[in-house]
Each structure stands twice: as structure tokens, then as C-alpha cells.
Amino acid sequence: MTKRTEISTLGEFGLIRHLTENIVLKNKSSLKGVGDDAAVLDYADRLTLVTTDLLLEGIHFDLTYVPLKHLGYKSAVVNFSDIYAMNGQPKQITVSIGVSRRFSVEDLETLYEGIRLACDVYGVDLVGGDTSASLTGLTISITCLGEGERGKVVGRDGARETDLICVSGDLGAAYMGLQLLEREKSVFRGEKDFQPDFSGKEYLLERQLKPEARKDVVAALARAGIVPTAMMDISDGLSSELLHISKASHVGCRVYEDRVPIDYQTAVMAEQFNMNLVTAALNGGEDYELLFTVPLADHDKVEALEGVKIIGHVTREELGNYLVGRDGGEVELRAQGWNSLS
Amino acid sequence: MTKRTEISTLGEFGLIRHLTENIVLKNKSSLKGVGDDAAVLDYADRLTLVTTDLLLEGIHFDLTYVPLKHLGYKSAVVNFSDIYAMNGQPKQITVSIGVSRRFSVEDLETLYEGIRLACDVYGVDLVGGDTSASLTGLTISITCLGEGERGKVVGRDGARETDLICVSGDLGAAYMGLQLLEREKSVFRGEKDFQPDFSGKEYLLERQLKPEARKDVVAALARAGIVPTAMMDISDGLSSELLHISKASHVGCRVYEDRVPIDYQTAVMAEQFNMNLVTAALNGGEDYELLFTVPLADHDKVEALEGVKIIGHVTREELGNYLVGRDGGEVELRAQGWNSLS
Q1: pTM for the full predicted model
Q2: Which pLDDT score, from 0 to 100, does residue B184 have?
Q3: Which residue in the set B48, B52, B157 is minimally distant from A143, CB to CB?
Q4: What is the mean pLDDT of each run of 10 residues along chain B (342 residues)?
Q5: Helix residue ranges per DSSP H, B85-172
Q6: Any CB–CB contact under 8 A between A213 and chain B?
């Protein structure tokens, strides 16, 4: 039987202490962590990056099929992803949690296990936060601080005409994983008496439940001597992110359908669900891959990178944003995004 | 008639843009604000401080009597207060908001008006955030970054035996303001047909609805050449905060009942409510005054500070934490705190 300790037995301060005890600070820049009014960080001559994400039960996650440990891991990783997307390194996070009485201390321990695992894997320090009662459900708010080298921090606004457009990994798998979980939701609820068969679909589930941030791609870019002109992580779908870069950089783009990287499991699931595969890859969201642009001169360098694909090029703004189909036809890119799809 | 625009008409990106347009960055350390994966900050050779707060409707605020603009102002100010409590200066905030369909774009504009006003008053830049739908109510998560001078950042753990214990302003007024608002709640709900009479109680309401952070006290300490040995802001009540400092510093304390600063409006209300005045002042919470300790040698300097009162002294840990009554009797301090009182 699982142990269940009511949160009220610990109280607010006891709960924070309990959840954050034995945290050893890993980064030189983390002078002081949890336990005071504010954490104290020391960023000598590097730039400080800061990003934040708010995750609400019923909107961003469904605890019917998302294990709390995975949720903790993912909540942290999606913030790290935003720092990598600036060509930076995540260094610290603060974690604020609002919980209703439905949750026990053990539930929160499990959530924090996931958060702390992500911190260990990515070398990030948990340095502060807040816990609070809530009337309904679970709220997770994470802020991540990171550092970037002066002159090498990459925004969305630097893409220039003729730049190559690149993406890491493959797209649409996390979205397919979500479809799969939604379809089997009745099973998780115990409304059916058979177990869902996820064999051959493990990759899709992993992409949805336990995504990773592309620390390795940022490192590979640095080793190759490439500083992207613009970069974002793909959280709302490729189309949406391409339009963000085009808008911020005052450019247009052409991406080629046959260049968009898609895993075969994603393709098989799209077929089963009778969905348009390219639509899923372009608008699916939650891929947490990196989308970036590099000068044409870096063509050979970027082509040599493992797991990175050139999918198109940057154009003048007036030429708009289009997907070029296999038949050469062009379809205008729209920001359907993850929100409207879910 | 008040205009009401559904949030769905703007969409997530439109909403962020709308709420954060025309924000002019004020601080040299704010290189890049809202609009990318992360804000970019530049803290040359100063220390970076970071604090975060999560505010949930129904737990931390009641929109029956809290105007949204005040709520925005207060949400920002309580974070600034945490940075001042480290002897630092707040410089940037990120603001994440979760809203249910009950709220319109105009509601959020009003909330942001309050946040932006607080940022203007305290010289802080709004540099990022997140907005999301929520199933119920309003969620506000704010993270504040600040800077501190190396060697002058003040934690909770530096109080030493014989240090003087000081507080700024007066205590218990915000709590009395809350009692007053709770009592008149039926009026706000329209259940009664008379207007509440708040005349003579304006100070209590202001302390509850529109608290200020003690930037002036931090500046006065610097001018007087005082670096406190320990400092906190009083958000959960004086007793609770004293125990935090004692625990972190491994000391005890004696504070004197007749030294605890209380405004006359607070005293009058306590009388009316038939409440123990000292209990309210010690455990009321939400004062956002500063509690700090200074070496005995700074006695004359600290006594000359306007609006600061010496309320006791630090002792050896074994002597415990006590309030000395007017009759000389001692009562052990307990962390009743704001949460258990409300």
C-alpha cells in the first residue's frame, strides 16, 4: 500500500524543507539556494537568461495518464529547453507549487523526484520556490535562470535572407503520443477491462511524457563553431515557431515538405488515426526540438551535424512563409499551434 | 458600461503582446525583455538575487473585495519586498498568469496596470512571462530578480548574540484591514443595501490592499552605513519571522511587548473586534515591513533612523525565543503565522 501523509501535517515551511532537503548546489554561480527570501546567484561576466512557465492541471497536463514523476521531469525540462533555445546553459530553477487536498506529501515527493532528476541530468540547481494550498488541482510554476556568452546569445530576430533553416531531431511524435494517450484514457480511468497495447509506440509515449531538451545540439553547434542567427525551441509546432522567427526577423521563409524530419512511428500512427502526417509534424507541438537559422556559408558545417536537418531557407519578408510540397505546390504556413489542436 | 473583450479573441500570443506592449526597459541590466524564449540580463560584477511567489484566487486573495489593479500592484510589491529583505534592489520581474473564462481582456489589463504601476514606482522592468487558460479562477506567479553588492547581501543566518533586533514601520495593520474587509464582505456581495463605513480606517485598508515594500529603509540603512547582520521581510507575522532568523542563525531572542510598533487605528480596530492587540501585531502577517538585526555598536546609528524601532536583542540559542510583557513576564514565541490565522 502506498503511504499517504496529509500535507497539513507538515505545514508550509515543513513542506518546503522536506521537499528541498539534501539539495547540493552544483553550479559555481549558485551562491545560496532555498531557505531565504531570495536565492543568491553570481554571474561574473556572462549574461543571465531567465524564462518561466506556468503549468495548470486540466490545461497542460492530465494526471489520468501522466505519472507525477514524469510531470516533474517534463516541467523542468521545458524550461531548460527555453534557455538552450537562446544558445545558453540553464543553471538554476525556482519551483512554485499550488496543491489541493487531493494530493499527499508522497505525491509531491514523486513530483519533486522528477524535477530533481531533471536537474541532475542537466546540471541545474533548484534554488528556491514557494508552496501553497490551492482550491482545485495542481499548479506548477517554474522559472529558470541560465547563462549565455556575451555575443553568442541567440534570439528570434537575427534571421537574414538566404540563411538556412534547420531543425534537430524529428517532429510530430509528442503530438501523436498525446493522441494515443487520449484514445486510451478510458483504460486509465478503469472504464475498460483490457490493458492498452503500447508496443511499437514507446517512442511516441516517451516523446510526450518524458521529453528531453537539446543540450547536445547546443553543444554540437558550439563545437562546430556555429552561432545560429536565430533560434527557438519547438513547443507550439514548427509552423507557429517559423512565423515567430519570420515576424521578429522581418523575413519570410520556404520550408520543404520532404525535408521535414518525421519518425516512422509517427507516420504509422498518423496512418492509423487517419490524420495528415505533415499537419501533425508542422502543428503538433511539444517537440522541444531546436529550430534555428544559420548563414549559408555554414552549409557544410551544419550538414555534418548529426541529428540536424536543413529544411528550407530564409527569404525576403514580402515573399511570405510557405511550405513547398512534394509536387512543388506552395501552401501558406499558419500558426495553428498546439493550443488550438488540443 | 464596461467593455468586455473575450480573451479568446486575442489568442495566447496576442494576449501577451497586448498586455506587454509599450514596456520601456528602465535598467541597464535589462538587455532584452518580453518576446523571446528568455529575457537577457546583464549583471556585471554584482550578485543576482531571485525570488518567486505564487498567488491563487481563494487562497491568497478574494476578488470580492480586492480590486484587480490593487491585486496586480500588491503581487509585484511582495516580490520586491523579498529582494529588499536581502539588502538588494529589485530589477526585473517575470509574470505568469492563469485565467478562467470568467475574466476578460479588460480584467487582465487592469491587473497589469497595477503590476506596471508597481514596476514604475520601484524602477523594475517587466521582462517576461507566460499566460494560460485555467479551469477555475486566477493564478498569478511572479519571479523577481534583483542585484546586491558583493559582501552586503543579507540573509537570515547572520544574527549574533547581543545584536539589536529592529523593525520598520508598524505591525498588525494589514491583518486588521483584512478582518475589516472580511466583516464587510456581505456588503461587497450586494447582500446588504448599505455601504460600509471605512472612514477612520483608511490606513488599515491601504496596508491590506496596497502595501509598499521598504525601499526607503534599505536606502536609509545604506546612507547610515549600516549592514544588518540578518534581515527578512515580515510577511507571515513577526513571531514567525523571528523564529526563522533564530533558527537560521542558531540564536535566541528577547523582544519587548512595549517596543512593538502599532498604529493607533490598529489598536482601535483590535478593541472593536475584541482581539488581543499584541497577538495581531505578532502574528497578523502581510505587513511587508523589514525585520533586521544590527551589531550593538550600531545602536546610535539605528536609533537615529526615522521609522525604525529597536524591539529587542539577540541571545544565545539555549535561551529560546520570548516576548517580554509589560509586567516583565515572558511568553514563548510561536509561529502561528498568517496561514493558520486566516
Answers
A1: 0.89
A2: 83
A3: B52
A4: 77 73 79 74 82 92 92 96 94 90 88 92 88 89 90 92 98 94 76 69 94 97 97 94 94 97 95 92 94 97 97 98 95 70 32
A5: 105-122
A6: no
CA distance linking residue B236 with residue A150, whole number of Å:
41
Number of A:B CB contacts under 8 A? 202
Best mutation target, B43, B54, B61, to test chain A (most A CBs within 10 A): B54
Q: Give the Cα separation of A123 and A83 in Å (integer).
A: 13
Residue A185, all three cell numbers: 484514457
| Chain B closest-CA separation from residue A129 CA (Å) | 6
Please tell me if residue B341 touches chain A, with a CB cutoff of 8 Å.
no
Dihedral angle computed from the Cα positions of residues B312, B317, B319 and B325, in that order, rounded to the nearest 10 degrees: 30
**Model pLDDT, residue B199:** 83
**pLDDT recorded at residue B7:** 74
Distance of CA A130 to the CA centre of its chain: 22
Q: Which chain B residue's Cα is nearest to A33? A: B50
Q: Does B13 touch chain A (CB under 8 A)?
A: yes
Rounded CA separation B30/B127 (Å): 8
Q: Which one of A37, A127, A139 has the shortest CB-CB distance to B139?
A: A139
A30 neighbourhood in chain B, CB within 8 Å: none
The whole-angstrom separation of Cα B266 and Cα B204 is 7
For A183, phi and psi rounded to 5 degrees?
Answer: -65, -35
How far lies B182's CA from each of A1, A21, A224, B32, B276, in Å?
Answer: 43, 37, 63, 42, 18
Q: Which of B92, B96, B145 sits opposite A54 (nearest CB)?
A: B96
Q: Do B52 and A88 touch (CB under 8 A)?
A: no
Give the CA-trace dihedral at B319, B321, B326, B329, to 10 degrees: -50
* Residues of chain A predicted below pLDDT 70: 1, 12-13, 16, 186-196, 337-342
User: Rounded distance, CA B13 to CA B21, Å?
Assistant: 12
Pairing of strands A321-324, A251-256: parallel
As a three-state string, the secondary structure of B85-110 is CCCCEEEEEEEEEEECCCCCHHHHHH
Placement of cell 529589485 in the chain: B90
Q: Which of residues 130-149 of A touch B (CB under 8 A)?
A: 130-137, 139, 141, 143-146, 148
Interface of A with B in 87-106 (CB under 8 A): 88, 92, 94, 96-98
Q: Chain B: give the shortest CA distance to residue A188, in Å.
A: 22
pLDDT number for residue B192: 57
> Nearest CB to B128: which of A51, A60, A134?
A51
All three cell numbers of B180, joined, read 475589516
Residue B193 is which amino acid? D
- φ, ψ of residue A299 in degrees (nearest 5): -50, -50
Query: Which phi and psi (to 5°) does residue A214 adopt?
Result: -85, 60
Using the structure block, give the residue that is written with the C-alpha cell 498588525: B172
SS (H, E, C) A29-88: CEEECCCCCCEEECCCCCEEEEEEEEEEECCCECCCCCCHHHHHHHHHHHHHHHHHCCCC
Show Cβ contacts of residue A85 under 8 Å, excluding neighbours closer than 6 positions.
Answer: A154, A231, A232, A233, A290, B37, B38
What is the number of other CB atoms lying within 10 angstroms of the CB of residue B318?
A: 7
From the CB of residue A224, how many other CB atoms can be counted at a distance below 10 Å? 16
User: In this predicted structure, what is the pLDDT of residue A42?
Assistant: 80
